[in-house]
Amino acid sequence: DAGVTQSPTHLIKTRGQQVTLRCSPKSGHDTVSWYQQALGQGPQFIFQYYEEEERQRGNFPDRFSGHQFPNYSSELNVNALLLGDSALYLCASSLSGHGPYEQYFGPGTRLTVT
Amino acid sequence: AQKVTQAQTEISVVEKEDVTLDCVYETRDTTYYLFWYKQPPSGELVFLIRRNSFDEQNEISGRYSWNFQKSTSSFNFTITASQVVDSAVYFCALSLNAGKSTFGDGTTLTVKP
Question: Which of B31, B62, B70, B89 is at 20 to 30 A from A84, Cα to Cα?
Fold first, then answer.
């Protein structure tokens, strides 16, 4: 039973560029949440996708957008990258209606913006 | 708004010592869920326990135990007879509904041999 997978593992981008991070949820899960974890801090909720729509959103600017595909996988897009976007981006999957809600986290994508 | 405070930034103990990690939360809702996660250096958050606001029973799982007290809005985590493998960052989190969790800033636990 595959857990949550994320790609890529590491990424280095330049200020102003755009980046796309990918997440495949645990088998059988239909809900994907994204979190940003800056160094030395706890994860901060970005948004959650269910049935291909954004269901909840945290306090992040519109530069952060996402998408969920029919197979429940998800992408996180960040435009106009800033140095402050450097962080570990975590994806978590869960099964709607079975909670709250044991989230399974992926290993994360470490983004460095130079 | 919800808030989770983990006042202990770093804790260092010697193997076999007992250690308690503190977690204090704030919410105006009466229905909520509390979690503890472990984050090893690899970065992946490992789920340890979930508690809902209506269940104040303490729980023990092997060397791990949790003390939930609504009166003080605390959900503390104790590791008995700590081991080097327990070294990690531990996060306490609060959730009101599906998915959106509010995390504390974590406590880095170092267990020395």
Answer: B89
Q: How many CB atoms lie under 10 A from the CB of residue A81? A: 19
Residues A93 and A32: their CA atoms lie apart, in Å, by: 5
Contact A30, A50 (CB under 8 A): yes
Out of A41, A42, A99, closest to residue B98 by CB: A99
List per-block mean pLDDT (blocks of 10 residues) for chain A, which spans 114 residues.
90 98 94 95 94 92 97 97 97 77 87 98
Inspect the interface and report whether the beta carbons of A41 and B106 lie closer than 8 Å.
Answer: yes
DSSP chain A: ----EEE-SEEEE-TT--EEEEEEPPTT--EEEEEEE-TTS--EEEEEEETTEEEEE-S--TTEEEEE-TTS-EEEEE-S--GGG-EEEEEEEE-TTSTTT--EE---EEEEE-
